[in-house]
Amino acid sequence: MQEQALQDIAAASTLEALQQVKTKYVGKSGLVTRELGSLGKLPPEERKARGAEINAVRAALDAALTEREAVLRRAALDARLASEAIDVTLPGLSLPAGGLHPITRVYDDLIEIFTKLGYDAVEGPEVEDEHHNFEALNVPWYHPARDLQDTFWLQDGRLLRTHTSPMQVRYMVDHTPPLKIVARGKVYRYEATDATHEAMFHQLEGLVVGDGIRMSDLKGTVAEMARGLFGGSARVRFQPSYYPFTEPGADFAVWWENPRGESKWLELGGCGMVHPNVFKAVDDLREAAGKERIYEGKTGFAFGLGPERIAMLKYGIPDIRYFYANDPKVIGQFRGELG
Ligand code: FA5
């Protein structure tokens, strides 16, 4: 039996098979165990020798079982390690890396230019009231300029701001001059979209207020911005224009030469000297809030421009609608280092 058992143990190729062999011989009702149990039936003089013999078998089997189990455990572990082994020389999986949206890049460039010129960068609410978006900017309800900027109205009478100019009013009510700020953010207009017009777009508003601020300061500032954006040889053009909140008002454009050798005037935005009625409206709001009237008699300039137009030229994007269509073919080009 011992010989047979040792053969069985050696032949067990898995831990489960070994367990079966173990049960068969030394389990509760195994062959060896039963032999031990039947000792009592032997005559007393034979028991001792027989018992010693069976115990020797048992010990031999236990030793063989333990040894075999160690071998099989080691093999099972080796097999598992082999199945989990990785080839560290294989190329890794690349995780998709994000990148800054082209509009964010243009904003970052603009904010850097103006921060160097000593401006503070601020932000304000997209949901506005009529007073800040229109009235305080010298656009009363009957003014035809309201039709120029078709408005998304909210049910509570408020609206989605149609430009960032209400930030001029908000900032002046809370701060004392002299001041220099740029305000960035989304604006909304209820209008048909085309290659250069979106219903949601962005603006950067600039405002400088102090004593003796002149139109030439405005022109110099816009020219400095254009050089910062497009290089030292950038040319800027001003054309008279009308904005109710400026007097005088102008539109400005930069002469743009793209890498393909094409060049044209790029309309960037509107600007002008802050209209006295705006200062008056700000003082009215300050007075209502228990603050001093300090803006009447001040001078200042303001400008507002659209970063989409800059990004379209800078990155050769032909249609403004690509910016917000979530098309990975377009936006994916701005991953990682590019741009
Ligand atoms: C204004 O919004 C004035 N608030 C700008 C201003 C500020 C003038 C301060 C004077 C003083 P306008 O509606 O022209 O002006 O818009 C300014 C710029 O926003 C445009 O030059 C253009 O670059 C951009 N823009 C206007 N409408 C759209 C549109 N639908 N989609 C994309 N960009 C637009």
TrEMBL record:
Compartment(s): Cytoplasm
A GO cellular-component term linked to this record: cytoplasm
All copies of domain Aminoacyl-transfer RNA synthetases class-II family profile, residue ranges: 99-328
Needed cofactors: Mg(2+)
Residues bound to Mg(2+): 247
Recorded GO MF terms: ATP binding; magnesium ion binding; phenylalanine-tRNA ligase activity; tRNA binding
Domain of life: Bacteria
Cofactor annotation remark: Binds 2 magnesium ions per tetramer.
One biological process term in Gene Ontology: phenylalanyl-tRNA aminoacylation
EC number: 6.1.1.20
UniProt entry keywords in alphabetical sequence: Aminoacyl-tRNA synthetase, ATP-binding, Cytoplasm, Ligase, Magnesium, Metal-binding, Nucleotide-binding, Protein biosynthesis
Enzyme class: ligase
Catalytic reaction annotation: tRNA(Phe) + L-phenylalanine + ATP = L-phenylalanyl-tRNA(Phe) + AMP + diphosphate + H(+)
SUPFAM superfamilies: Class II aaRS and biotin synthetases (SSF55681), tRNA-binding arm (SSF46589)
The protein's assembly and partners: Tetramer of two alpha and two beta subunits.
Family stated for the protein in its record: Belongs to the class-II aminoacyl-tRNA synthetase family. Phe-tRNA synthetase alpha subunit type 1 subfamily.
Protein's name according to its UniProt entry: Phenylalanine--tRNA ligase alpha subunit
Source organism of the structure: Deinococcus irradiatisoli
Gene this chain is encoded by: pheS
